[in-house]
Target: Methionine aminotransferase
Amino acid sequence: MSKLPNVTTSIFTVMSKMAAEHNAINLSQGFPNFPVDERLTEIVSRLAHEDVHQYTPMSGYPPLLTKIATLVKSSYNRNILPETQILITAGATQAIFTSLLALLKPNDEVIILDPSYDCYEAPILLSQAKPMRVSLNDDYTPNWNAIASTFSEKTKMIIINNPHNPTGKILNESDFEKLELLLEKYPNALLLSDEVYEYITFEQKHISTHTRPKLIDRCITISSFGKSFHVTGWKIGYLVAPDYLIKEIKKVHQFLVFSVNSICQIAVSEYLDLVNINEINSLYQKKRDYFRTLLKNSRFKLMPCEGTYFQVASYANISKENDVDFCKRLITEYGVAAIPISTFYENGKDLKLIRFCFAKDNQTLEEAARRLTVI
Ligand code: PMP
Ligand code: GLN
Model:
């Protein structure tokens, strides 16, 4: 008997596979296709010949923990203790999975905001807890009234994803004030904040939970070096949480992976001394603007994109097909792969919207746009 009867192969796998089979330009699954910074690849080549191939301590390579504390201080002016409040994980996915498994009990309720990224629900269900999905408003702002009426004494956690995949929306000051007011009423509820795109925001500044004193004592904040350093395949991320939570999370982590890939940890640790992480915003802002300009004469209607490397577009002017069928036809007839947004909703709400990943070199964006403008 299946423990996850409704879980199927992830849409990212399905679309990337189909893109490869049809030799299409893959703007579906989110990953960069431009070269990684040579300074980072040089560090890895050198490290391969050094004595760095055995387990690191369970929580992470100590110099990396210290550098993350420095990064959180410089980005958000928050003091965290490297030894006790940070855990290095095999990507944000493992940070999320481990946290949920460690902290949820049967029948706990967890609020998720739809459209939502796909990795939250499975660990909730495996913990025999209940996902409570609340739709965002039409402009992708959180519907705080609906969230408040879903909250109860059974609510163990609310998950936010900011900047938001797939919509590119970011939370503003008023959203945080409403969240804080709500959580004040429920002192036992926790917050999991998925901030993997924290360094990819544009006109509006990212507000991190690290900067919210009313939240940090009950919050697990999740980051990913895969996103920030264009190395999604390295699967390296981290979480920051208060001692009483991370203590429980580490109990699961030590038996799930024990520790994370040593070379990647050491390489990231050295690279953090060389790189200006704040330059990532302007790299992606240029790509967003370029991609949007290239699509200006297409029949797609482009939605606002405040952060992440995803552009959502409406094809309502082009076709009445559902978004999954439209994406499949986009691959087979036009040679471009995208992600149907309905797959981020509990009930597959079809809004005629699809998501393109613009973390690509200019040549790829130009060729994709050329194909998309003939539709
Ligand atoms: N959360 C969101 C919102 C994401 O888009 C991703 C993307 N891959 C992840 C978590 C997982 O990150 P990682 O690849 O570091 O596991
Ligand atoms: N986060 C990536 C995306 O949104 C997908 C990663 C994966 O395939 N698990 O496209």
Remarks:
- The radius of gyration is 20 Å.
- The chain has two domains: 11-35+278-373, 38-271.
- The domain at 38-271 is CATH 3.40.640.10 (Aspartate Aminotransferase; domain 2).
- Residues 279-294 form the longest helix (16 residues).
